[in-house]
């Protein structure tokens, strides 16, 4: 079944409660970067970043960002895709949270981890609203922890 977070956004209390759960978890962890994965990581990431006093860094699909980028490829069920991040927006040694709406196979989040680690940013954790555990996506995240709110099985 396709898991859709847009209904959550129609309920301001549920949406706020969702953001607050992430904010409570990450507010005192010295995180200076919230990296959001296009497209739906752009919905959850900015309010979390503002609340914890971190910058928001978009991780975009290819050829969307205007400046110089670094990119990482990841595998899909059929073929591959890429995500990109602007060069110079994060510094070595910064601590980052990666946020997306959903983890399925884990390919997208694993590419996001690689992008940040290539520039020596420490990925504290990945966070999603929904996990599809039967796809075992968290096994592709190596030693990185994954925090999720909902089992989407
Ligand atoms: O764990 P994975 O198997 O990598 O899948 C998860 C990703 O797939 C969906 O995005 P999608 O690729 O459909 O892109 P979109 O949000 O731009 O439509 C979802 O929002 C995650 O970003
Ligand atoms: N929103 C979604 N629901 C179910 N499977 C997915 N795989 C990637 N995105 C998905």
Automatic annotation (TrEMBL):
Catalyzed reactions per annotation: AMP + diphosphate = 5-phospho-alpha-D-ribose 1-diphosphate + adenine
Alphabetic keyword roster: Cytoplasm, Glycosyltransferase, Purine salvage, Transferase
Enzyme Commission number: 2.4.2.7
MF GO annotations: adenine phosphoribosyltransferase activity
Gene Ontology cellular component terms for the protein in this record: cytosol
One Pfam family recorded for the sequence: Pribosyltran
A single BP term in Gene Ontology: adenine salvage
InterPro entries on file: Ade_phspho_trans, Adenine_PRTase, PRTase-like, PRTase_dom
Pathway field: Purine metabolism; AMP biosynthesis via salvage pathway; AMP from adenine: step 1/1
Name of the protein: adenine phosphoribosyltransferase
Naturally occurring in which organism (per UniProt): Lotus japonicus
Upper classification of the organism: Eukaryota, Viridiplantae, Streptophyta, Embryophyta, Tracheophyta
């Amino acid at each position: 079944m396709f898991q859709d977070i847009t209904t959550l956004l129609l309920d301001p209390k549920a949406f706020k409660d969702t953001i607050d759960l992430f904010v409570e978890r990450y507010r005192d962890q010295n995180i200076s970067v919230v990296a959001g994965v296009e497209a739906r990581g752009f919905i959850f990431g900015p309010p979390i970043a503002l609340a914890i006093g971190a910058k928001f860094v978009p991780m975009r699909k290819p050829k969307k960002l205007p400046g110089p980028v670094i990119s990482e490829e990841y595998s899909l069920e059929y073929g591959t895709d890429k995500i990109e991040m602007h060069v110079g927006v994060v510094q070595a040694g910064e601590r980052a949270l990666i946020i997306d709406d959903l983890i399925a196979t884990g390919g997208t989040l694993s590419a996001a981890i690689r992008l940040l680690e290539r520039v020596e940013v420490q990925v504290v954790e990945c966070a999603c609203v929904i996990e599809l555990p039967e796809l075992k996506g968290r096994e592709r995240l190596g030693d990185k922890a994954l925090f999720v709110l909902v089992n989407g099985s």
